[in-house]
């Protein structure tokens, strides 16, 4: 069993980096999913303690998926939500941010088919939130993949999104990669 002070300290450190993200944040933001591995991330360098990692399958990844200077004026909460019933004040990604974090991991640690199913399960994506996140997103692959899935599923009005927000799409060429499972992913 975890000592109260140790568990509080690690939750405080995770909270300081606002770190629960991707698929592991989805159950907390209205999607039912079996989470057997905790993916955490933040912009600060951080190593999960051995005692934590040995008890909870987890990985921390330092990355900057969003340009915070662009995001802050658009979203007060940077795309995070406070878990309401958590005593330590744990933050998780909002459903829109979690979805973009999952799409960012496609071809790295995330299976394309699972990401597609998660995207299709979104029924109420908020245009203002996802637009702000996409406008501040530093990964062209993630923006293009979101737009491609959104067009295929009619989940959101892509034309209105692109008209309202300045999205970084890179050059007009296609983005192509062979994923770890051998599938070739091409994003227009």
Write the layout of secondary structure elements.
Blueprint lengths: L3 H13 L21 E5 L7 H6 L2 E5 L5 H4 L8 E3 L8 E3 L1 H10 L7 H10 L5 H10 L3 H14 L4 H7 L10 E4 L5 E4 L1
Parallel strand pairs: 1-2
Antiparallel strand pairs: 3-4, 5-6
Helix pairs in contact: 4-7
Written account of the structure:
The structure is a single chain. Helix 4 (95-104) packs across helix 7. The strands form three sheets. Strands 1-2 form a two-stranded parallel ribbon. It has a two-stranded antiparallel ribbon with strand order 3-4. The N and C termini lie far apart (50 Å). The chain has helices at 4-16, 50-55, 68-71, 95-104, 112-121, 127-136, 140-153, 158-164; strands spanning 38-42, 58-62, 80-82, 91-93, 175-178, 184-187. It is built from eight helices and six strands, in the order H-E-H-E-H-E-E-H-H-H-H-H-E-E.
Main β-sheet, in a few words?
Answer: 2 strands, parallel
How many domains would you count in the coordinates? Answer: 1
**Helical content class:** 25-40%
Rounded mean pLDDT is 74
In terms of DSSP E residues, the strand content is 5-15%
Q: What is the CA-based Rg, rounded? A: 17 Å
H-E order: HEHEHEEHHHHHEE
Intertermini distance: 50 Å
Strands ordered across the widest β-sheet: 1-2
Number of helical stretches of at least 4 residues? 8
Secondary structural class: alpha+beta
Unreliable spans: 1-35
Instruction: Give the overall silhouette.
Output: globular
Strand count: 6
Keywords, separated by commas or semicolons:
188 residues, alpha+beta, two-stranded parallel sheet, two-stranded antiparallel sheet, 6 strands, globular, disordered N terminus
């Amino acid at each position: 069993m975890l000592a109260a002070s140790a568990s509080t300290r690690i939750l405080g450190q995770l909270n300081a980096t606002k770190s629960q993200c991707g698929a592991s944040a989805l159950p907390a933001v209205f999607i039912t999913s079996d989470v057997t591995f905790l993916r955490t991330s933040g912009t600060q360098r951080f190593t999960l303690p051995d005692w934590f990692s040995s008890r909870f399958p987890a990985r921390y990844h330092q990355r900057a998926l969003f340009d915070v200077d662009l995001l802050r004026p658009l979203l007060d909460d940077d795309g995070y939500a406070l878990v309401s019933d958590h005593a330590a004040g744990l933050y998780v990604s909002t459903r829109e941010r979690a979805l973009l974090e999952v799409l960012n991991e496609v071809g790295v640690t995330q299976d394309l088919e699972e990401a597609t199913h998660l995207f299709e399960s979104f029924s109420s994506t908020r245009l203002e939130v996802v637009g702000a996140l996409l406008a501040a997103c530093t990964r062209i692959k993630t923006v293009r993949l979101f737009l491609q899935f959104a067009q295929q599923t009619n989940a959101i009005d892509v034309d209105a999104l692109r008209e309202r927000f300045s999205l970084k799409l890179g050059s007009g060429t296609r983005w192509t990669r062979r994923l770890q499972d051998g599938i070739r992913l091409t994003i227009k």
